[in-house]
C-alpha cells in the first residue's frame, strides 16, 4: 500500500467526485487513489479550514492541517499537488523535503517555464519522479490514436484545427500537450490578439503553428465567460477525426468515392463514438503505481509538461506584444 499526501483540497483534489455515483469513474486525485486500492490517503493540507475539514471527512483522511509545517514531518510515497498554480513552487519545494518517491502535480507546474524547468531538475536531482496531470495522455483512446497516427494507419496528416478557452497556458497547455502527443514537436508561426476570458495574466490566444513534420495547425479560441470548449479536428489522407467535449465524445469520417459526383472522393457519414476521457484519471494512478512498483515509464512528465509550457508562453508573449 502506497501512502499519499494531498496538498490543496479543491475540485481536482476530490471535489469533482463528490456527489457522483460510487460506480462512476474517478475524475480526481482522491477518487482515483481510493478506486485503485493500492493507495492510502494519509494526510491533506489546505489553508481553508472548512474546505480542508470537508475534504478529510468525505475521503476519510486521518490527518489534516493548514500547512505542511503544522502537519509535521512524515514519510509519504506520493505527494499530490492540487493547490493553485501560484502555490505550486513552494508546495513542490516543501514536498521535496519530505522525500517522496513521486510527486503528482496539477498543470501547469508553475507560472513560468524557467521555474518549471528548475523544479523538474530539482526532482530529478533527488531521484523523485514527477508526473504532471495533462490528463489526456492517459486516456486510452487518445493513446491508441497517437499510436495509429504514428503507424500510418490514417495515412499522412494534412492539418489540424483546435479550439479552447480559459488561458493559453492553463487550458491551452492541454491543447499543445495533446498536439505534441499526437503530432510531435510543434513551432509557433504567428499569434493573434489576446482574449482575456478568465485569467488576468493568462489570456486565451489564437495561433498558427506547424509540426516538425510540416503539418499546419490552427488554434482558435472561444470565451470562457460564455461556456467552456475544448475540441480538436485532425484531417488526414484517409479521413477526419474530431475530439468533442474535451474527449467525452469523438466523431469520425472516412474518405470514399463520392456518391454524388463521379470521379471525386469525399468524406462519408459521421460515426459518433463515446470517448474514454473518464478512464484517464484511473489510468494515471495505475501508471503511477506501475512506476513505483515496477519502474514503468510515466506517460506525462516534467519534461513533456515543460515542452508544452514553452510553446504556450511563446504564444502568450507574441499575443501580448500586439497590445504594445
UniProtKB/TrEMBL annotation:
It comes from the Bacteria. GO terms for molecular function: nucleotide binding; oxidoreductase activity. Keywords: Oxidoreductase. Its EC number is 1.-.-.-. It is an enzyme of class 1 (oxidoreductase). Pfam families: GFO_IDH_MocA (PF01408). Residues 5-134 form the Gfo/Idh/MocA-like oxidoreductase N-terminal domain. Belongs to the Gfo/Idh/MocA family. This is Putative oxidoreductase YcjS. It comes from Tsuneonella dongtanensis.
Amino acid at each position: 500500500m502506497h501512502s499519499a499526501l494531498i496538498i490543496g483540497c479543491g475540485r481536482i483534489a476530490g471535489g469533482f467526485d463528490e456527489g457522483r455515483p460510487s460506480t462512476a469513474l474517478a475524475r480526481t486525485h482522491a477518487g482515483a487513489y481510493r478506486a485503485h486500492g493500492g493507495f492510502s490517503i494519509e494526510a491533506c493540507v489546505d489553508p481553508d479550514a472548512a474546505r480542508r475539514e470537508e475534504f478529510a471527512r468525505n475521503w476519510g483522511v486521518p490527518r489534516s492541517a493548514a500547512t505542511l509545517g503544522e502537519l509535521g514531518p512524515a514519510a509519504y510515497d506520493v505527494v499530490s499537488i492540487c493547490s493553485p498554480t501560484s502555490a505550486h513552487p513552494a508546495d513542490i519545494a516543501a514536498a521535496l523535503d519530505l522525500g517522496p518517491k513521486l510527486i503528482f502535480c496539477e498543470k501547469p507546474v508553475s507560472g513560468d517555464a524557467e521555474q518549471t524547468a528548475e523544479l523538474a531538475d530539482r526532482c530529478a536531482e533527488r531521484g523523485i519522479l514527477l508526473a504532471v496531470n495533462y490528463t489526456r495522455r492517459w486516456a486510452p483512446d487518445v493513446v491508441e490514436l497517437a499510436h495509429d497516427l504514428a503507424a500510418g494507419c490514417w495515412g499522412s496528416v494534412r492539418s489540424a484545427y483546435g479550439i479552447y478557452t480559459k488561458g493559453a497556458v492553463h487550458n491551452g497547455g492541454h491543447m499543445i500537450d495533446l498536439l505534441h502527443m499526437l503530432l510531435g514537436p510543434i513551432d509557433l508561426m504567428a499569434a493573434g490578439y489576446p482574449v482575456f476570458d478568465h485569467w488576468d495574466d493568462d489570456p486565451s490566444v489564437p495561433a498558427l503553428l506547424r509540426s516538425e513534420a510540416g503539418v499546419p495547425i490552427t488554434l482558435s479560441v472561444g470565451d470562457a465567460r460564455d461556456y467552456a470548449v475544448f475540441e480538436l479536428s485532425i484531417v488526414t489522407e484517409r479521413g477526419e477525426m474530431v475530439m468533442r467535449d474535451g474527449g467525452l465524445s469523438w466523431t469520425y469520417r472516412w474518405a470514399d468515392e463520392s456518391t454524388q459526383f463521379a470521379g471525386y472522393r469525399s468524406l462519408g457519414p459521421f460515426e459518433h463514438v463515446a470517448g474514454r476521457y473518464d478512464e484517464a484519471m484511473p489510468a494515471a494512478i495505475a501508471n503511477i503505481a506501475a512506476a513505483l512498483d515496477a519502474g514503468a515509464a510515466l506517460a506525462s512528465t516534467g519534461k513533456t509538461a515543460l515542452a508544452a509550457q514553452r510553446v504556450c508562453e511563446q504564444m502568450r508573449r507574441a499575443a501580448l506584444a500586439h497590445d504594445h
